[in-house]
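Proteins fold reproducibly. Next comes an illustrative record:
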Amino acid sequence: MTGVGLYGLLAFEVARRTGEIGIRSALGARPRDIFRLVVGRGLRLTATGIVLGIFGAVAAGSLFAKFLFGVQQTDSLTFLVVSITLFAAAFLACYIPARRAMRVDPMVALRYE
């Protein structure tokens, strides 16, 4: 669900910023730079969410450890596996809008405005 939400957000952002991406391309930005711009935005959002989620999970873990048998407050392996999985899903969700942004033709984008 996180990946679909992030994909929707980035697809909307790329569509909204088509003119800006076209201007960047017209001024000499390489497709690699545009790809890095879009993917970097998505991965920064994901990293912030993962860090906040880990803090929330540690706080909630102490509560759940009291009520559930065999649950530890901090299970590092679980936190690591879930974080890596979410980060990979986020990268895949960022990839499609970033590829679309790389293909923006500067002339079409400037006429769009």
Remarks:
- DSSP finds five helices and no strands in the chain.
